[in-house]
């Protein structure tokens, strides 16, 4: 009887060990994590603005536990490879940016495989067996990239794609002591995504006055110059027109005397030889044209008051509107 009970106990112990091993194997098989990422779109970007542009993206992480588990927590590490700063491209043209773990843009998103820091998060088993959590990441296009061009004088899309060779999900389930990302070797697949920005044509324009100064009787012509400065997206074709001012006639401009009364005729020209009146393309006038470089381009405005019978003394002026079309 004693021998029988001893054999029975040994069989129970062995069965218990086998059962424990089976449960452990099932647990290891069932406890997994996966991830998927959203695209990141910076929308329309004007390089000549000089300001950084921001956007956000997200990674959705799903982890599954066994119904009964000895490892209720899991460390998830999201690795993103590639060099920094990162670049979106269109052909050979590039736009610098980077992806960050924080909204202060202080911690770049990296990978244990490049010796940098991945995004990491610890999840704890819910009441059920599956938990999905979303992690936000942050993108910023660096400012001060004024020469980034458009192509074919149209809005141009720049992109970077992160595929299976640059993204990886590592994870480790644990009971009490959390591992660190460099020590985690279980790979849960990849989470490919893309980043894009639309570089747009844009222009800034400014001007300095044409000041003829103080004159007495206008027995001879008087000349003075001003400037118009345009800053347009690299590759952006543009033209600058000048309106007729108070006269409403680009071919016969006049300055009005303060307080009303008499006028002084004058004209503005695009060339130093005073052969091309600068207007809106009507009545024999021409417009300035150019192609943006991303940096400032300055045009001289040549002004001339022709000799004319003595106007009434006073202060004469006109307001001209310069319009840039692109």
From TrEMBL:
Residues 1-30 form the signal peptide. Keywords: Signal. This is Fimbrial major subunit CsuA/B family protein. InterPro entries: Spore_coat_component, Spore_coat_U/FanG. Residues 23-150, 190-323 form the Spore coat protein U/FanG domain. Pfam families: SCPU. It comes from the Bacteria.
